[in-house]
Design goal:
Elements (H helix, E strand, L loop, with lengths): L2 E2 L7 E2 L29 E3 L15 E7 L2 E9 L3 E10 L3 E3 L7 E9 L2 E4 L5 E4 L3 E7 L5 E4 L2 E10 L1 H7 L5 H8 L4 E2 L5 E2 L2 H11 L5 H33 L4 H14 L9 H7 L4 H12 L3 H16 L7 H7 L5 H12 L3 H12 L1
Antiparallel strand pairs: 1-2, 3-4, 4-5, 5-6, 6-13, 7-12, 8-11, 8-13, 9-10, 9-12, 11-14, 11-15
Helix pairs in contact: 3-4, 6-7, 8-10, 9-10
Length: about 350
């Protein structure tokens, strides 16, 4: 299997062998990273709810969170090169959860059942859609996710350091990963649909009956196959994007520079004309160039980011609604509040009250 890192044969690399280049060691010296969703006081170690006994993976460590009308059944499998997480959320009403990875993670996330809207604290809004997956950078702090009544299944494979080093060889992967380290987000520009082959690999992992070193070795190989499938699709998508892009190399560099700079300076993203002038581009070149590369115009992309950041700031009572509006560059709080309600379905005061309820 041959993956192209960039235009020209000089950038070609055989990625199908990169996993085999890392010597397998059955024992992992790294502690299990538990993804916390609610207060740690609610965790029941080793407890499997009767409703989910058929989905118990023998090799996995089990953690169950239960609070009021929400149960989260988590299974974690620690492997030499990866850490596999399988989370089932059972919400009896509309609820808010606050996932905390306890340290930055780089993860392939597969949404197996249901749709979830998430907001990375100080970062973007993320939609997890059933049947899709992405490679995410998630900073090590508490984030937010909204669940409607129902059952949701999330499966993700977290990369350990040696795997990250190999992924950095892919076209622009290292650039995206470093630029997302502060605020988090999606490395692939657009979500990938879970293919039949990838679904089969996930099914084999979730139905694995083997334990001990034999089980760990098998699951490590299956996780590597999922990673290679992502690497192939990511590289193909990147090559397709660059082959279709009609903007100049200089403007392309400017577009990437804008995304990196203004993701950290959201209050300055309202005046596209002024931004275009700084980069010696026209407003239409900025808007169209952004859409060509990232799928959204500059204005739409950064409006989503401002609203997501405002959502995250609502969890801090020390910031008034007026202060949040100013921090996001709005002249009037009503302007932000109207956009916020259109996007999230609740105004900022109602959302703050919901966050307070679930922080208790």
């Amino acid at each position: 299997m041959r993956f192209i890192l960039g235009p020209g044969d000089q950038n070609a690399v055989i990625i199908s062998t990169f996993v085999q280049d890392i010597n397998y060691t059955p024992k992992s010296n790294q502690p299990v990273t538990l993804m916390e969703f609610i207060s740690t006081d609610t965790i029941r170690l080793g407890y499997v709810p009767e409703k989910f006994r058929s989905q118990r993976i023998p090799i996995a460590q089990v953690y169950t969170y239960q609070k009021e009308d929400l149960t989260v059944f988590s299974q974690v499998i620690d492997l030499p090169r990866y850490q596999i997480h399988f989370h089932i959320f059972d919400a009896e009403n509309d609820v808010m959860v606050r996932p905390d990875p306890h340290g930055e993670i780089l993860a392939l996330h597969y949404m197996l059942h249901g749709n979830i809207d998430c907001v990375l604290r100080q970062g973007p809004q993320v939609s997890l859609v059933q049947g899709e997956y992405n490679m995410f950078v998630v900073p090590g702090r508490r984030h937010f996710a909204r669940l409607k009544e129902g059952v949701y299944e999330c499966f993700h494979v977290n990369m350990k350091p040696e795997i990250k080093d190999h992924l950095d060889k892919l076209l622009l992967f290292d650039f995206f990963r470093r630029n997302l380290s502060s605020f988090g987000g999606m490395i692939n520009f657009r979500p990938f649909r879970i293919s039949a082959d990838e679904n089969l690999l996930i099914t084999r992992i979730l139905s694995c009956e083997k334990t001990g070193d034999e089980g760990a070795e098998l699951l490590d190989v299956l996780a590597s196959e999922l990673l290679m499938a992502f690497a192939e699709r990511y590289t193909s998508a990147m090559n397709a994007i660059f082959s279709k892009i009609k903007i100049s190399s200089k403007h392309l560099a400017n577009i990437y520079s804008m995304k990196a700079h203004y993701s950290k300076n959201l209050s300055n993203t309202h005046d596209v004309g002024a931004i275009a002038l700084l980069y010696k581009m026209s407003p239409s070149e900025v808007e169209n160039g952004f859409e060509e590369v990232f799928g959204y115009s500059f204005s739409v992309y950064f409006e989503k980011q401002r609203l997501a950041r405002a959502f995250a700031l609502l969890s801090f009572d020390r910031y008034s609604l007026e202060a949040i509006a100013i921090m996001m560059g709005y002249d009037k709080v009503g302007e932000l509040d109207a956009s916020f309600e259109d996007f999230f379905g609740r105004n900022m005061e109602a959302m703050r009250n919901l966050l307070r309820k679930w922080a208790r």
